[in-house]
Amino acid sequence: MSLSTQPPKEPFRLGQLLSDTRYRSITIQVVALVLFALGLWWLIGNTAENLKNLGKTFSFDFLGQRSNYDINQRLIPYDSTSTHGRAALVGILNTLLVAAMGCVLATVIGVIAGVLRLSKNWLIARLMTVYIEGFRNVPLLLWILLIFALVSESAPAPRAFANGDANMILWGTMAITNRGIYVPSPVFTHGAWLIAAAFVVAVGVAAWLRRKSLREQAATGKPPLPLWQAAGVVLGLTGLVYLLQGGIVFTLLFVVQLAIIAAIFIYVRRFVRPALQYVPSQRASATATALGALTALLWAIYISPALWHMLTGVFGTPAFTPSITLDVPALGGFNFTGGFNVRNSLVALWLALSLYTGAFIAEVVRSGIVAVPKGQSEAAAALGMPASRSMSLVILPQAMRVIVPPMISQYLNLTKNSSLAIAVGYMDVRATLGGITINQTGRELEGMLLMGVFYLALSLIIAAAGNWFNARVKLKER
Amino acid sequence: MADPKIAYVRETMLPPQAPPGNDTGAVSWIRENLLSSWLNVILTVLSLWLVYYVVSHVAPWLLRGIWQADSLAQCRQIRDEMYGAGANVACFAVITERWNQLVFGFYPRSGYWRVILAFVLLVVAIAPVLFAALPRKMLWFSLVSPLLMFFLIWGGTIWGPIAVGLGLAAMVGAGVLVTRKRGMLLGVLVAIGVGILWFLNPFAIVWNGVGGAGNPLGFLFPIDSLITRIGDAVAPGLALPRVLSKDIGGFTLSFIIGIAGIALSLPLGILLALGRKSNMLIINTLSVAFIEVIRGVPLIVWLFTASLLLNYFMPPGTNFDLMLRVIIMVTLFSAAYIAEVVRGGLAAIPKGQYEAADALGLDYWKAMRLIILPQALKISIPGIVNTFIGLFKDTTLVVFIGMMDPVNLLGSIRANTAWNGIYWELFLFVGLMFFIVCFLMSRYSIYLEKRLRREHR
């Protein structure tokens, strides 16, 4: 005797497609897919017919044609004989430039404002609230236009530098004018590769020393090689090569640099080192090394030449010139020549994007800090940690878990908002590829498509990088 | 049990004493809140200096502002007479003189009452949605009012909006009826079918595609245009003078785009979020692709797409209103953001809630409507309102495709010889208007969060 637990098989009925949950989801999906395909087919069909009526074809040939227009702000060589493709690349680099600058400054502003809004100081907390609410509730476009007006009207004209009404800053190397900020640009001559090679070697040596000391720390608990020593190796080696290329003035320069390094040494030893001891993780050390290397790079290509520029003013031009010098802007006629002109459009866009996004980041940071249970800061206080250290060692690492995901979307927003460059005439990708190129060639469809794909790819890359970072910093839970 | 070793035990409580003078009142407050550490002292001094600097520069400019003048030159003349030559004084006369333009754009002067009436209707329609204390019956008016507002602002015959309203009612009615008898899926399909029958010309579509010219079945026009024609023949007087979209500008434009976008993007965003959480592969993939593509590209690019490219995607000869295109783009854009916010809310609902809904035997839509979505939406309120605030601020971007929004008017007023050279006053005004609206929205979201808080804290 056997009892069948299987229900008797019913023949399939058409009604089951709607009533039976097993088949219904398939029905819904098939209907959705058919509707989607029909819609797509309709759109593409329309487009094809419209293009045919206009006598246009779909091709990206225009990217190879001569562009015939100039771009005033550019990071790579370009002139009006270049191709539209190169113009698009200039625009893309400009977009990336302002987005990267904006993300850095917005983070700095946002973290400071977010922490200060929670300050016990009543006045500063209110001021930060005013800043945050003010920037968050007014359209970004208005801020961009306003800051553009501010930078172009409040700064002195180049004329004012000639008659002494205004002075260049930073040892006479930088001028802030209403036509933009003139900064020195580094000039690399034939021997520059020696310094570059020395720099690369020094970074390698520093990284090797650092890793060795970290392994030692893991084994014995001895504190690792501090940041200043790693940076010192880089600076010392690079500086030595730099020194060898110069003459007497350069010996002086080296002494000055050594004095500054010594000052940094004392500072680091007194204030930073005790704090670093609490950071056992390898990541913090790697970050510190990277920061040190960056500082050294900045030192080698900017600060050293700037000092050299100042010293040559005192001691005269030495017999040997180093291979990296600065092209310092100088007043010639009615305007500055030489150096690198950071136009007001870039400055205004950068500041506006940073201040605007900074207000949002401040709220992100604040909510992250508030989300850390109060018991954590109380525990830190009970252990005798001062408030500043408990913030950096106890509160912020835990707040990161809440802060990082919305922070990524703020970076995304900033990047996309950089397309508002159109308001101040900054030549980003929308102005070159999506603006003048489209107007000149009449290729709206292709131009917009390329631009859309660029922004989409950029967004996806930022999101992916952010998620990767988030996976690394988030609390490991079981 | 008195211990003989203790000589004296107090038996009455001493009255509490006032704290020392240093610990109470203004002095202590200042010490605690402004001067608690050296860093705080420095910060306090810095902020005081900043406040003084800003106030000393802005207050005279603001308070002595001149409100009545015909041009900047006249404004300066008045200033020189009152405060001496070259004094730092605002010239708000530009706002009083150009008030109508900033609010209505180039809307015909004789029709201002229509915009104002539409705004009043908007307030009446929106009130029961925002505040639960008002009678629920007012919601019926909220449903009808969009058509009324459309009629008031754009004008034309009233039969068009009536036909559209009847068509929507027919769609919903047929959909609900079939859903009750035969289930959701068939209900939706029937509703879509009724919509096609009512608003499009199905026979012509089969023959030539939408709007195809010269179709042999042209005598079968859609029902809504039939109603409009009959209505116009019977009662031709029920019409207002037409106003073109390009004449609508200023804050009216910002409000129309903003509110239409807000109203349309919420339901669409919720549907997209449900699609993204769905475990049906195709629905899920389509939703994810839509959300990511829309969010990955800046709104400006979408607006340019709307103004430059949309004609390519439509059948030849179609040309629909730029404002409608912008509203569609803005709606799609913010719907993608709302979808992500709502998805976060859905993810925060404990799994037990879904299981409880299943245990009660509710189907998918009932479970969503009665159990999951109310909780998820409550969680996502701040994010949704933030998206709305962003949407309203983004209405300023239409300036780049040549629409007459307040930022565009800023430029055109400054280009006028009478007001050439004026800047900060107009900026302040436009910025302040946006600030007020956005700030009220964020306060409302806080109020709503408090009202909906059910758990005990």
Mean pLDDT of chain A: 77
Uncertain segments of chain A are: 278-282
Give the largest interface: A-B, 60 and 59 residues
Give the spatial strand order of the biggest sheet of chain B.
1-2
Q: Estimate what percentage of residues of chain B fall within beta strands.
A: under 5%
When the domains of chain B are counted, the total is 3
Number of strands of chain A: 7
**What is CATH's topology name of the largest domain in chain A?**
MetI-like fold
Label the overall shape of chain A. globular
Protein name (chain A): General L-amino acid transport system permease protein
Family (chain A): Belongs to the binding-protein-dependent transport system permease family. HisMQ subfamily.
Subcellular location (chain A): Cell inner membrane; Cell membrane
Domain ABC transmembrane type-1 (chain A): 92-466
Per-chain topology:
The complex is a heterodimer of chains A (478) and B (457).
Chain A: H1 16-19, H2 21-54, H3 84-117, H4 122-136, H5 140-154, H6 158-162, E1 175-177, E2 180-183, E3 185-188, H7 192-220, H8 227-245, H9 248-276, H10 282-315, E4 324-327, E5 330-332, E6 335-337, E7 340-342, H11 344-371, H12 374-382, H13 387-417, H14 429-441, H15 444-473
Antiparallel strand pairs in A: 1-2, 2-7, 3-4, 5-6
Chain B: H1 25-33, H2 38-63, H3 72-83, H4 93-97, H5 99-104, H6 112-130, H7 138-154, E1 156-157, H8 159-182, H9 184-199, H10 202-208, H11 223-234, E2 239-240, H12 250-277, H13 281-296, H14 299-313, H15 322-348, H16 351-359, H17 364-394, H18 406-415, H19 424-452
Antiparallel strand pairs in B: 1-2
